[in-house]
């Protein structure tokens, strides 16, 4: 009897293990080839814009990936969306306003900072070793708020946010540069607090008196004009961006995503439309995905996609008191 019992339990365990393995193998085919269009766009976009885009190419051709990534071109062709704005936090003394926003497929947060000179770049204290959680980064900088900023490269395959990609400027000093004299997409704030979005090299950064800045792309609004064609071609995902109004007000935008019951995510066109809604004259996309995060007074304001909590990142834009 004991022997039969052991055999029965082995069969049950084997059955469950087989089904788990089978389901795991089936998931990519359902995501990339299944009938659920929104999930397919979200999944392909997430992998294609991640650090391992080769994964999706194992299942789909370049032509099919491009087709899926541009699924919502027609829907996003209009300038402006019906974006629902609702005041969440207004701290007159600190010059910060935070609002909830909601679009067709997304929910997120917008932070308005009236004094642009208060916005600085924070960098992980262990560049080349490990990144930091945004809450720790904001606290360590003596700031009261912040969002994630530039992307990172991963030479050791550890994915711990240790190496900021491109050129990083803090307090007027270049603190990290992995591109040498090359010109790269750059997002900088000069001594007057003006947001400058354009390709720059080290000499350009010095000539323009850039005090704070990181590398990322693409521009969403340039000189008050829309800069995104179609839906942007990056699919739907959690997103972060920074912009500026004519009066100097800095605009932080963080969109939640990859949470079908809450917020699927935004296209680059959606992000551009949010900045248009907030009267931005300059705006640019920042690192997104599981890095997208907004912090205020030590609290994470948005709904993180990463089940493990805050991601370790190399840089953030923070707001000093």
Automatic annotation (TrEMBL):
The chain crosses the membrane at residues 12-33. Residues 142-319 form the Phosphodiester glycosidase domain. Coiled coil: none annotated. Keywords: Membrane, Transmembrane, Transmembrane helix. It comes from the Bacteria. It holds the Pfam family NAGPA. This is Exopolysaccharide biosynthesis protein. It comes from Desulfitobacterium dichloroeliminans (strain LMG P-21439 / DCA1). The lineage of its organism: Bacteria, Bacillati, Bacillota, Clostridia, Eubacteriales.
């Amino acid at each position: 009897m004991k022997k039969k019992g052991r055999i029965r339990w082995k069969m049950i365990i084997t059955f469950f293990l087989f089904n788990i393995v089978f389901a795991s193998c089936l998931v990519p085919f359902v995501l990339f080839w299944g009938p659920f269009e929104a999930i397919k766009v979200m999944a392909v976009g997430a992998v294609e814009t991640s650090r391992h885009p080769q994964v999706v190419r194992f299942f789909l051709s370049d032509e099919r990936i491009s087709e899926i990534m541009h699924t919502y071109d027609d829907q996003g062709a209009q300038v402006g969306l019906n974006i629902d704005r609702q005041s969440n936090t207004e701290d007159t003394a600190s010059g910060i306003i935070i609002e909830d926003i909601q679009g067709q497929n997304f929910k997120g947060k917008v932070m308005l900072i009236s004094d642009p000179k208060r916005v600085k770049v924070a960098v992980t204290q262990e560049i080349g070793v490990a990144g930091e959680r945004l809450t720790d980064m904001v606290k360590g900088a003596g700031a009261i708020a912040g969002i994630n900023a530039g992307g990172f490269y991963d030479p050791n395959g550890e994915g711990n946010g240790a190496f900021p990609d491109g050129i990083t400027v803090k307090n007027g000093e270049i603190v990290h540069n992995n591109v040498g004299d090359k010109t790269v997409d750059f997002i900088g704030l000069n001594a007057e607090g003006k947001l400058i979005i354009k390709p720059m090299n080290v000499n350009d950064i010095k000539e323009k008196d850039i005090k704070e800045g990181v590398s990322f792309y693409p521009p969403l609004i340039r000189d008050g004009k829309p800069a995104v064609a179609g839906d942007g071609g990056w699919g739907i995902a959690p997103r972060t961006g920074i912009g500026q109004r004519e009066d100097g007000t800095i605009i932080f935008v963080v969109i939640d995503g990859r949470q079908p019951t809450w917020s699927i995510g935004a296209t680059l066109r959606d992000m551009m439309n949010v900045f248009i809604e907030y009267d931005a004259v300059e705006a640019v996309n920042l690192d997104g995905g599981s890095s997208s995060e907004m912090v205020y007074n030590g609290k994470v304001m948005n709904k993180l996609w990463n089940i493990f909590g805050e991601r370790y990142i190399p840089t953030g834009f923070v707001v000093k008191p």
